Amino acid sequence: MINVDLHTHTSASDGRLTPRALVQLAHDCGITTLAITDHDTTAGLLEARHQAQQLDLRLIAGIELSVSWSQTVIHIVGLNINPESLSLVQGTAELRERRELRAQKIGDSLAKIGFKQAYAGAKMLAGEATITRSHFAQYLVDQGCAKEVSKIFKHYLVRGKPGYVATQWASLEDAVSWIAEAGGIAVIAHPHRYKIGSQMFQNLLNDFRQCGGQAIEVVSGSSTPKDTNKFCRLAQRFNLFVSVGSDYHGPHQNWNGLGQLSSLPDYVEPVWNNFQDTTFTLCH
Predict the structure, then answer these.
(1) Dihedral, CA atoms, 164, 149, 100, 83, nearest 10 degrees?
(2) Percent of the chain with pLDDT over 70
């Protein structure tokens, strides 16, 4: 029996574990098919692939892209991609530049309320990785501002709070096209998290399908059985494949982790049934 997790993060973006360590942990948790989907980067895939080959674990090359749609930030996961696709490489390079600019602005905003070293601290935690709000959150936890990263987000880093910086990310059309041109399948990540109404979400699904999107994540580390049923029904209605992913970032997170996801209903079609067997060669 396969055990699948198609949404995870490593230290190449804002995960706590190195790619090698994440693959090892996934294997130890009984996962047989794993996708690494770091934010706007594929930098961890080569190290992960070497470890996966040693463990006979099927590794799916992936990525998670930030999208601006109708004044809402949506995350689109790309699965079974060619990491060296030119359009994907160019597009993610631009997104990382926007992340860096946003980080500088977040640092400026937090400095105004007394956290003078927030940017430097977040950069130190990120190292060579793509910098994200999670690095700021972890820095503030380390400074004793709260015990949990989630509380830092709630009080400082979400819309309406002093460290929030609005950013224009990729368009939905661009993100889906980058994934398609890389030979992959575009998936709407953790749909239960978006604070939009039912009709607006259906508008998103319409736009997503028109752009060439093919799947939706119906089981997530933070979703409920009610969420799963709701989005499985929408997947049927909009003729979408379904995906599962823990959105694992590390042992600190407070939702279901590796190997703990619920199974899919049998009336939906899993996205992994449509993966090509091609294994892309990573040269970098």
Answers:
(1) -130
(2) 97
Question: Is the Cβ–Cβ distance between 115 and 144 less than 8 Å?
Answer: no
Which residues span the domain enclosing 187?
Answer: 4-81+168-274
User: How many whole angstroms separate alpha carbon 191 and alpha carbon 187?
Assistant: 10
Residue 151 and residue 146: Cα distance in Å, rounded? 6
Q: Which residue has the tokens 């992960």?
A: 48
Q: What local confidence, expressed as pLDDT, does residue 282 receive? A: 55
Q: Which of 134, 157, 180 is the last residue of a domain?
A: 157
Domain termination site, one of 103, 135, 157: 157
Q: How far apart are CA 54 and CA 24, in angstroms?
A: 10
The 8-class DSSP code of residue 276 comes to -
Asked if the structure places residue 101 within a domain, the reply is: yes
Rounded Cα distance between 34 and 80, Å, is 11
End-to-end CA distance of the chain: 33
E strands present in 48-128: 58-69, 72-79
Q: How much helix, strand and coil, in percent to the nearest 5, is found in the chain?
A: 40, 15, 40
Distance separating alpha carbons of residues 155 and 229, to the nearest angstrom: 31
H or E segment and range at residue 219: strand 215-220
- Extract the tokens encoding 278: 């091609």
Confidence of residue 283 (pLDDT cuts 50, 70, 90): very low
Rg (C-alpha) for the chain, rounded Å, is 18
CATH code where residue 177 lies: 3.20.20.140
**What would the pLDDT profile of 57-83 be if each residue is shown by its tens digit?**
999 999 999 999 999 999 999 999 999
